[in-house]
Amino acid sequence: ESFSRCPMIYDMLWEMTWTKDPIDPMKWGMNYLERRYGAVNDDLKEAWSVLLQTIYDCRINDIAGSLINVRPREKFTSTSGGGRTNITYDAKQFEEVLKLYLDNYEYFKDSEAFVYDLADVARQVLQNSSLEFHKRLLNAYYAGDKASFNLYADKFLELIALQNDILATSDSCRAGTWIEQARTMLAGADDWTKDLFEFNARCLVTTWGGQRTDLVDYSYRAWSGLTQDYYLKRWTMWVENHRESLMNDTGLASMNFFSTEWEWVNRKSDEGYAYPTTSTTKGSLYTLASQAYDS
To answer: Nearest-5° angle of CA 178, CA 181, CA 183?
Structure first.
């Protein structure tokens, strides 16, 4: 059920089939780094040393899932994909990886692999930050602190929008690519068949089926377009519900996220809901990733 988001894991996995000896992750990682980028320096060695000691050193049951990509609520024990909602490594240390990548952008920007990894690290930094802002806005809500709630709620939604823009710079992180592949996979298909394939493609990465399922967001994806129109829309609904409750001193309204989700699943590209398959984001990856670091 894996998804080829992390090239390093696949490189290591297939290399393991050719050796009987245990692999030293640190030594292997440093050699892989040079193969991947075509060159290496001390900054990137330091960055990968941190990666190998933080996010790549998590056991399977300790991996933190993405709060951004799950159906909104106040309390989480795990994400829909089974990941934990607490970070088991030093998130501040991990953020310095992004700084090291930004510092070396000009030298390595022509490396497709480097650019891919920069976007992915920036995405992860925002994903980690979302956990903290979610906690802060809820603390402000229950403390009746309107100013702090507005501050943290707005930052929370802004970082989701920023993640969407960062993902849009990566060819492999666009909902448009996934949907277009579904619509064109059968040569000579009529419009009804293309729409059916699109429906299935949208459903697989969101609701997984109709309303009576426990697998909502089981196959969530950090993709542009999907993040903007599906995940951000849900969280905006949730935040505004809490904001209205706090400002007007009223109870929280009940929310039906499925109707919003199902509307997105049933949209059709040939009816004005197509997503781009190339980058349309405003601003360079360097600028956007710098904003992620500053957030």
So the answer is: 110
